[in-house]
Specification:
5 helices; 135 residues; mainly alpha
Length: 135
């Protein structure tokens, strides 16, 4: 019941985002000045740092919550790379942003996702039985 509801919710959200994205593409200004620019980026990087720290702590403790935390951290890294490159594209920092994205953020995100997948599909340890030590 809950699974079906979640699938319907996800499908409806995906369908809703199509016209919403078209609407935004046609109505948003190409430039916008905001007074909360520093707060937005500092908050985002703080959240990213907390995700790294929490993923490290969960991994150190071998907690199963490390898997979604690794995926969340990788997602934030991809978002960081996207916005850094996109927002610096017309500035002199363009190539620095591209280099950071290609050389650090995206490879680290890939590594985190690979590790999360490895942990997710790894065979579960099983108890040692007498059959394992028979001659």
């Amino acid at each position: 019941m809950i699974r079906r509801f979640l699938l319907v919710l996800l499908g409806a959200a995906a369908l809703f985002l199509v016209p919403w994205t078209v609407y935004l593409a046609n109505t948003l200004p190409s430039q916008f000045d905001t007074g909360q620019w520093n707060l937005a980026w500092v908050g985002f990087d703080t959240a990213l740092g907390c995700c790294f720290a929490l993923a490290c702590w969960l991994g150190w403790r071998r907690h199963r919550a490390a898997v979604p935390m690794l995926a969340a951290t990788a997602t934030l890294l991809c978002c960081d790379a996207w916005f850094d490159v996109l927002l610096d594209w017309a500035s002199p920092d363009r190539w620095t942003s591209v280099a950071m994205a290609v050389g650090a953020e995206l490879p680290i995100a890939g590594l985190l996702l690979w590790r999360a997948r490895t942990l997710l599909v790894a065979p579960r340890p099983r108890a040692l039985t007498v059959r394992d030590i028979e001659l």
